[in-house]
Specification:
Keywords: Flavoprotein, FMN
Number of domains: 2
Pfam families: Flavodoxin_5
Largest sheet: 5 strands, parallel
Oligomer: single chain
Bound molecules: flavin mononucleotide
Organism: Yoonia maricola
Number of helices: 6
CATH topology of the largest domain: Rossmann fold
Structural class: alpha/beta
Protein name: Menaquinone-dependent protoporphyrinogen oxidase
Number of strands: 7
CATH superfamily of the largest domain: Flavodoxin domain
Strand content: 15-25%
InterPro entries: Flavodoxin/NO_synth (IPR008254), Flavodoxin_dom (IPR026816), Flavoprotein-like_sf (IPR029039), Protoporphyrinogen_IX_DH (IPR052200)
Shape: globular
Strand order of the largest sheet: 2-1-3-4-5
Length: 176
């Protein structure tokens, strides 16, 4: 299959996940084009058998370039096998209220863009202290403490479950 993966990433984890997905799908015999969302506007979606848009949650929102892309391509996305890969720290846990908040983020994204993704993949992200400034680091240490999560501000901490991601991608493409 011919697959497009377009992503946004603030601290780099979604970029890493998108690259991993591209490498995995390539290894499965698919032809994959991996692009940053800002560079995907001229992509002709009809050329692809499947399109994956990926972004991460910051303060309950996804990155603006991803919203802009989904909005401008909403009609074309509806014509192709598509999925939304949402990266967050909420996805690393099981708190029902946090999950309800995450679902609301996706709903807002769908409303803003006019694209209701038929498949939503929730993928756990990472604490990336190496990318944070002083204030972000402070805020993320506070969030970690609220979650009873032990973090060392000198070390990044990744929650992404790579094996599950592969299975999720397989399930998405199954039956194509
Ligand atoms: C400033 C900031 C705000 C965040 N807000 C949320 C949030 O509202 N909900 C959530 O589940 N995760 C939140 N996260 C966690 C990110 O989604 C997570 O770190 C993810 O791996 C970031 O992906 P990226 O490196 O591709 O930007 C936040 C992270 C930062 C640094």
């Amino acid at each position: 299959m011919n697959i497009l993966i377009a992503y946004t990433s603030t601290e780099g984890q979604t970029r890493k996940i998108a690259r991993y997905a591209a490498d995995y799908l390539n290894g499965q015999g698919h032809s994959v084009e991996l692009v940053g969302a800002k560079d995907a506007h001229d992509a002709e979606l009809a050329r692809f058998d499947a399109v994956l848009l990926a972004g991460s949650v910051h303060g309950g929102k996804y990155q603006k370039p991803l919203i802009a892309l989904a909005k401008s391509k909403a009609a074309a996305l509806a014509q192709v096998r598509s999925a939304f890969l949402s990266v967050s720290l909420t996805a690393a846990g099981t708190d029902a209220d946090e999950w309800a908040g995450l679902t609301a983020c996706v709903d807002r994204f769908a409303k803003k863009t006019g694209w209701t993704p038929p498949t939503v993949m929730h993928v756990a992200g990472a604490f990336r202290f190496s990318e944070y400034d002083f204030f972000k680091s402070w805020a993320m240490r506070w969030i970690a403490s609220q979650k009873n999560e032990q973090v060392d501000p000198h070390e990044d901490k990744e929650f992404t479950d790579w094996a599950t991601l592969k299975k999720t991608l397989d399930t998405w493409l199954l039956g194509a």
